[in-house]
Amino acid sequence: MLDKTIIGVDMGGTNIGIARVVKDKISDHFTTDNDAQGTEEQILNTLLDTIDQLYDESIHGIGIGVPSLVDVEKGIVYDVQNIPSWNRIPVKDVVEKRFNVPVYVNNDANCFVVSEKYFGKGKQYQDIVGLTMGTGLGAGIIIQNQLYSGQNCGAGEFGSIPYNGQTYEDYCSGKFFKREYGIKGHQVFEDAISGNQKALDIFHKFGTHLGNAILTILFAVDPQAIFLGGSVTQSYQFFQESMWETINTFPYKRTIEKLVVDTTDNPQWAPILGAAALHYDAQQI
Predict the structure, then answer these.
(1) Residue 236's pLDDT is what?
(2) Burial 40-53 (b: 16+ CB within 10 A, else e)
(3) How far apart are CA 194 and CA 142, in angstroms?
(4) Residues sharing a CB contact under 8 Å with residue 168, sequence separation 6 or more, in sequence order
(5) What b/e sequence results for 16-25 when a residue is b if at least 16 CB atoms lie within 10 Å of its CB, and e otherwise?
(6) Edge-to-edge strand ranges of the sheet holding 59-66
(7) 218/221 Cα distance (integer angstroms)
(8) Which domains does the chain have, with CATH numbers?
């Protein structure tokens, strides 16, 4: 199944990333500009023209990841972040009619966990959760080797769970550094590399908050493994210890003894690989 050539598309507000994917290999990849303020039709045409540059008769399917809620069955995307005109777009129907191959659409966090399952460290596990920590906190869930999106593509929205008067997203993403300390995460990272104690303390607190989010995930999902992606994971070495200190407070010790928490090996390509992997996940049904 993995020897089929699939086009993976990472749909963003300012650009669209695209590549051919065969097994775990990416080829013919490029990024094109996307006008986030364009009309519904303009942006659809940009998407179609971008795919057209890679499409040929060797393509078996197309997977598209978008930062929004998705009707997975119908492939309709709703209220795309950073694309105001995309409120209800039947992406699956439009792209399938143009290229006449199966098209699968899902949100970007779900694409991340599918990428880990098919192309990353998650291959050996049946039940995994993927957390993306960047400007926000996203999550995707694999249960018994298959993506679980929920009825409205909202499964795994752990970032929206209330926590400390805010939400987990406010404490477990790049928002934490700006909101709590008025500094961007990459600056804290650079200061921590230099041994700055304040920066190290900030990451220690971040790890504690992330550990609490993971405790919630353990109670809710009980996965075999949790994989971390997104820009904040570059700082993993600085918050790993406090994260595990918190995880180890989980009352069921057997769960912790078996649990794997790790970072992705494919941070750059995870969005495109995950979009392509939507095709493979759909074949499991």
Answers:
(1) 97
(2) eeebbebbeebbee
(3) 38
(4) 137, 158, 159, 160, 161, 209, 212, 213, 216
(5) bbbbbbeebe
(6) 25-33, 15-22, 5-11, 59-66, 103-107
(7) 5
(8) 5-111+269-282 (3.30.420.40), 123-263 (3.30.420.40)
User: What are the residues whose beta carbons fall under 8 Å from the beta carbon of 174, sequence distance 6 or more?
Assistant: 133, 134, 135, 136, 184, 185, 231, 232
Mean pLDDT per 10-residue segment, the chain (285 residues) = 86 90 87 90 95 95 92 91 89 97 94 93 96 92 93 88 97 95 95 97 98 98 96 95 98 96 86 92 73
CB atoms within 10 A of CB 183: 14
Assigned token pair, 132: 């993306």
Separation CA 81–CA 203 (nearest Å): 28
Position 115 scores a pLDDT of 93
207: left (phi over 0), alpha (psi -120 to 50) or beta: alpha
